[in-house]
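Here is one chain, start to finish.
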Amino acid sequence: MNKFTVDVAVDRVAGDGVSLEVARAGKGRPVVLLHGFPENWHSWRHQIPAIASAGYSVLAPNLRGYPGSDIPRDKNAYGLLHLVADVTALVRASGFPRVTLVGHDWGGVIAWAFARLHPDLLDRLVILNAPHPEIYVRKAKRPPQMFKSWYVLFFLLPGVSEFALSAGGFRAVRDMFRRYPARRGTFSEEDIDRYVAGLSHPGALTAALNYYRANVRLGVGREWPPGTIDVDTLIVWGEQDPALDAGLLDGLDRLVPRLRVHRVPHASHWVQNEVPGEVNRVLTEFLTT
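Its structure:
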């Protein structure tokens, strides 16, 4: 059971043709937290109390396809424009004209796109270990990122990747959370069980993989119009990420002029869980400065 130092209520918000489960806490200007693959709003368990205690309200959804949010069957329902439209619905549900948006992994990709398409709805943007789509598309075509992106091609194989990830009681997923963080023990067995339980729900694993399958051409279509993101932006990057090279930060300041980067040499992909104290300090300083 979660033990929070602030009250957390879970309710539902109507998204873009789906119903989203959303954890809420605190009062004040809103901060929306978008989790990554293959997690859920529990990914932000260390950040929710810190943000709420700093005088903000928090909305942390389970993204579409992750129980108990709706799980559309159509692969195209996970296209980037639908994911961005869900965030627009969360802004409306916040009761404020603008929000601060925080995204990790796929949540970060959605946050990048939202900032490009709807800067008028943003106060600030925070990205944790999620590449800017324009830079990722270029870097993924050559080393070292090319070699780190092998798993994306594997995830595009319907049925094959579902079988491999779910075999042996989701052994591959469990090993990922146990072995890949730079700090061993970052995820408790209870944390891992929670994520596996979500993926075990009928249709949920395929839904999570459909984020990749519906957006494999991310960055070259109308879903990603080129241009700068003119909003105050904080990047927090764990430099030991096994899937995303730190070189993805090179040249980012040309696309995001109002940029601050905080590198964490001793953390990997799940930086907000590996070094929650450091992330919370940097995040709340950015929110309040």
